[in-house]
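Quick one: structure tokens for this chain, please?
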Amino acid sequence: MTSLISTLKHTLTQRLREHTPATLLIGLSGGVDSVVLLHALVGLRDEQAMELPPLAAMHINHGISQNAADWQAFCETLCTVWDVPFHCAEVTVEHSARTSLEATARDKRYGALCAQAMSLSAAVLTAHHSDDQAETVLLQLKRGAGPKGLSGMAESSRLNEVDIWRPLLGLSRAEIERYASDHQLTWVEDESNSDTRYDRNFLRQALLPALQGRWPGFTRTVARSAALCASQQSLLEEVCDERLSSLLVDDGALQIAGLLAYSEAWQQALIRRWIEMRALPMPSNAQLEQILRIPYAAADRQPAVVIGQYSVRRFRDKLYIVNNKQDCDATQLTDAMAVAVDKPVSIDGMTISLSFEASDAAEQLFTRDPTQLAIRPAPLALPVKPRGEQHHKPLKQWCKLWNMPPWQRESLWLLFDNDEAVALLIPDKLKIVPLEREDGKRVYLSCK
């Protein structure tokens, strides 16, 4: 038994002991690494050397290279010969000034793999090895990453609720290529791998060979350092989670007074963990410094730190993570949007549905004419009376009584029956507030 097969068996045995997916979905680029992984798994399956879930393979066609169609055909033929169900997805990789082509392609690739894995109830297997790990750690070092970034890739992780396994991570590129040679395997070569304009290729072609020439065990040493960083990061997250549990309130906001009781280093760690728990991009060091200054802004100020698609804002001695408003659809810019039974309408990230049938999640409303319902922006000066309240008050006063942050007041909508408001819609909370009215036809409004 080769060291590669032995390592693969050991790693998969451990993973399958923790969780047994319905399928193992191998990411198959057609390169030597993924071809070796698929060949080794097919061997374990055919020789019944271990009990495995059914295998499947998936190729992602990025459409960047003129050889992309040939690579896809090669992978499909390989799977036919080895009796492995084949899946393929074409993705469009657009270059952005803010994101590298490599990162965009990787995100698209993992998105397609995870979508297919969810349809198969599968775990995704990739052929990353210790040389890839060294490249990842060096790239993170170049970016000034902390322990989390320097942890590199985990042997097992989750993305979009899908298990990602890297069973060859403990092996070197040389060991994988030796296996390929011993078994006389064929594979495709991506010509872009020699283009050193890409950071990872520069490390692979120019830097790592020199480092390994000087220190032959360099990639394994880097992998060991990455594992130590991962261990320390895990301990840090455990402590952060314990401390955050006493700082977070029901709406997910962070209590400023409790946060300031810790040192600045702990404040930074807690804020990063708070953001990470929402699966949002991490702030830069400069943005993190700005967040730390928010509590000290004057009481009449509304400081906000914008981080891509979200912001960190303050309201009444708490910090909030707020989704930035995106450009509205053309329909949202009109004065009114018609609402019809059984025809969902989306606005500001909230989808509302009107029905004549009651459900546990729906609010009961009364309307004189269900065909004349429409959504309009909510004027804060408009007097309204929520169901169960005693008096009409301007909507602005209700917002204050409800401790509604200013940014939520900016995106309030009302459902009108002709010219009479019958419900308030609060997209940021995915909430419907019925307004007082007891006559008319009964309808039911739900949101998600």
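Residues 218-244 form the longest helix (27 residues).
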